[in-house]
Amino acid sequence: MPPNTVSVTRPGKWGNPFDFRSSDCCLLALSYGCRGDRRGRQEASVKAFREWVEPPAPGKKLVRYERGVRFGNDEKNFQVGPRFVVGPPPTLDAIRAELAGKNLACFCALDQPCHADVLLELANDPGTL
């Protein structure tokens, strides 16, 4: 890789844990307001990453993030498609310390949504809380 470049591919420290490439994730993509096709699922995986990695409200700490689609009510419901459960995200301080001013390398096409865009925004925006 060129100098000053950090890989943010999966698997890895900075990889997006939300892999929505499978068509099983169509309903999950729809739950994010995206289409169920390949591009919509890609967009939804980036939205899931942003939701997970953006700093929580002051005084709150995210310990576990869970996202899936369930149908039914409190007494009787069922899971549809995959469910993603991930641990705590990297802190904003860690993102800034390791990624600020760096080029980020991912396999996403340049004209497609990518979680690297979220990381770049958080790493380089001084106004982010």
Provide tags for this entry.
alpha+beta; two-stranded parallel sheet; 4 strands
Secondary structure elements and pairings:
Layout: E1 5-7, H1 26-31, H2 38-53, E2 65-72, E3 77-86, H3 92-99, E4 103-105, H4 115-124
**Secondary-structure element order, N to C:** EHHEEHEH
Helix amount: 25-40%
Shape call: globular
Rounded to the nearest angstrom, the distance between the terminal CA atoms is: 31 Å
SS field, number of helical segments: 4
Computed over alpha carbons, the radius of gyration is 16 Å
**Mean pLDDT figure:** 89
Strand order of the largest sheet: 1-4
For the sheet with most strands, the description reads: 2 strands, parallel
Q: In terms of per-residue confidence, which ranges show pLDDT below 50 for 5 or more consecutive residues?
A: none
Q: How many domains in all?
A: 1
Relative strand content: 15-25%
Give me the secondary-structure category. Answer: alpha+beta
How many E-type strands? 4
Assembly type: single chain
